[in-house]
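Annual report, structural modelling task.

Input specification for the zinc ion complex:
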Amino acid sequence: MTARQAAATPRQGPASDRSSATPGAASASVMTVLGPVSAADLGIVLPHEHLLCRVYRPADQGADERFHERVTLGNLGWVRQHWASNADNLRLTSERLAIQELQRFKDAGGGTLVDLTQDGIGRSPAALARISRATGVHIVMGCGAYVAPTNPAWIATATTGAIADRLVAEANGGVGPARIRPGIIGEIGCSWPLEAVEGRVLVAAALAQARTGLAISVHPGRHRAAPPQIVERLAAAGADLSRVVIGHLDRTVQDLAGLVEIARSGPYVELDLFGLETSYYPWPGVAEGLSDARRLILVRGLIEAGLGDRILLSHDICTKHRLARYGGHGYDHLVSNVLPWMRDRGFDEAEIDLLFRTNPATMLGSHGRLRT
Ligand SMILES: [Zn+2]
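The model returned the following structure:
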């Protein structure tokens, strides 16, 4: 065991014994790109990431001449401050690089990565299976639809029933010639204000959840009124809110009271931009960038409010500048850097176990509604 693996291994003691005995997670199974895995065997999980993807960028496309430059050491300082304004930065297309980067997470003690890339932004089922085989990291693939402008043409005119049927068909029969099966519905893309088609996809996700037992992960619009609207829509459509994830809350609802309100309404609250620390957020007027230290204060506040079992943590890596190869923090940041900081800040082993293992395993674990 390396020092980094040792850092990621829970210390023994009554506290971690208690949390690892969480009912439900152990008996459930999770569909990965290489087949079903017991939820108890996922290890440390990153619940919201992208290994290969092409980010959709609606604003200021090409406004700066550096939009068209390759990311190099010469412009990396600028790219870090304007990460959504450089085309090359918004493309993760090298399978070889993805393997090298994911290997860092494995070497640090990581177990499972959830890739929420959708058709329209570069979902690559067969490549995910190869990356999983090469690294030994369990990979859970998503299904559904991202924000409206990225949607494949058929979704624009499809009924909620037809969209739900497609999700169920993927969940049961897989995607492509290798029939690789998704293990989660998401990330479902929502804009602010919500587009009509995005509302239909949300309803379809709820219908598909009822038929498959899969969890739902949502990318909310960039407005603090977006998460409650999404929760309401999903609840009205019959979703099991206890297995719904509202992502990107560290750019959407940046105060503890707001996060507590969302968590109390049922879903997981996901702080999934760990490692992204520039003060300037590229969508002006929406949010300021949080530091990881500030994120941990919010996590502590949620735990103190009795909502520890509703928290998920991830990086949502989808740009080159966050990869280790490009001077970024890498997929191992939460395990290698944040986890030791958490111990320094007084998070105990039961809390760390809950946040990194039990919560994502419980979120992902389905109980027998999937065909195996
Ligand atoms: Zn994402």
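The CA atoms of residues 206 and 227 lie 15 Å apart.
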